[in-house]
């Protein structure tokens, strides 16, 4: 058996020992800094400067940038400035001005200082084009501070400025919006209205995934319909997996949504596999959705994939519906 992985350093001596050895990989340094800021914040400045003095000869080596990023993510603008000043005083070099300003605006966003972010953004705009990196840091900061509506606003501004909005930013927005508002209506309406740009298929699929996280079947189905309407309005070419997820949601109620989704799936050239058909048919029993179960059985027969298990599943649907 493989040995169990060592637990991540947590105590101050453990963190000091980790940083005292060879130069840490970027992701290790980020984790080290995040842990230090969370558990031993009063020691962060001293340990960070000590690490940089051991491993870096100048700004280009990158450790100061990573550690300032960590302080920004933690919502600590004063620490961002203090770290740059401390390195400059100790080693004779510090952060470049533009980078420092970007870190500060991200730190204020993470701290929930919306007015300060807006004021600094005006300064950036007056000096010229606001970079993609600046917008990204603000959006990450808004996510960290739980200000989803602010994140939506800055993603809109990012798009209006001509920058491509990264799909991971949109998928994270969907997840955070669902957790904050308890629904997907807000983010779906925004994606299809104010922020109407062609969405990558993975964003639509993630929206459907989030429907399963809602507390009631009614809310799940309502949100699934909204996501499907958004996909149709955007004319997004979706993979078969998206239709499969919609079918798993729609089969939970006895209405026409499931059969309509199945027709669109077939029309788009996707063949529902035996595993999907059997799974959805089984769920149709509880909702007594006989029409959808029979349509799925027809798909299986057309593809010569109807098995004994599939027949038994269809009989179960009939039995639950009282059709003996």
């Amino acid at each position: 058996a493989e040995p169990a992985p060592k637990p991540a350093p947590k105590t101050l001596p453990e963190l000091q020992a980790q940083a005292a050895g060879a130069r840490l990989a970027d992701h290790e340094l980020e984790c080290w800094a995040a842990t230090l800021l969370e558990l031993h914040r009063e020691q962060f400045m001293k340990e960070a400067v000590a690490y940089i003095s051991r491993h870096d000869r100048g700004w280009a080596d990158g450790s100061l940038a990573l550690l300032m990023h960590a302080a920004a993510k933690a919502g600590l603008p004063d620490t961002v400035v203090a770290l740059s000043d401390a390195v400059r005083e100790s080693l004779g070099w510090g952060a470049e001005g533009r980078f420092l300003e970007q870190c500060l605006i991200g730190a204020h966003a993470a701290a929930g200082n919306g007015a300060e972010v807006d004021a600094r953004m005006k300064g950036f705009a007056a000096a010229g084009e606001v970079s993609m990196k600046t917008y990204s840091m603000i959006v990450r900061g808004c996510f960290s501070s739980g200000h989803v509506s602010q994140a939506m606003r800055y993603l809109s501004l990012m798009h209006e400025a001509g920058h491509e909005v990264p799909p991971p930013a949109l998928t994270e927005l969907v997840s955070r919006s669902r957790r904050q508002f308890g629904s997907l209506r807000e983010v779906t309406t925004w994606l299809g209205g104010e922020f109407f740009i062609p969405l990558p298929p993975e964003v639509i699929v993630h929206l459907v995934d989030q429907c399963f996280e809602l507390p009631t079947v009614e809310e799940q189905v309502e949100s699934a319909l909204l996501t499907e309407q958004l996909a149709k309005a955007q004319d997004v070419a979706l993979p078969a997996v998206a239709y499969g997820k919609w079918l798993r949601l729609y089969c939970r109620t006895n209405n026409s949504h499931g059969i309509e989704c199945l027709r669109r799936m077939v029309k788009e050239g996707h063949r529902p596999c035996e595993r999907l058909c059997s799974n959805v048919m089984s769920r149709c029993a509880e909702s007594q959705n006989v029409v959808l179960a029979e349509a799925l059985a027809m798909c299986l027969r057309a593809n010569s994939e109807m098995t004994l298990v599939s027949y038994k599943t269809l009989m179960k649907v009939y039995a639950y519906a009282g059709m003996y």
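The radius of gyration is 26 Å. The mean pLDDT is 91.
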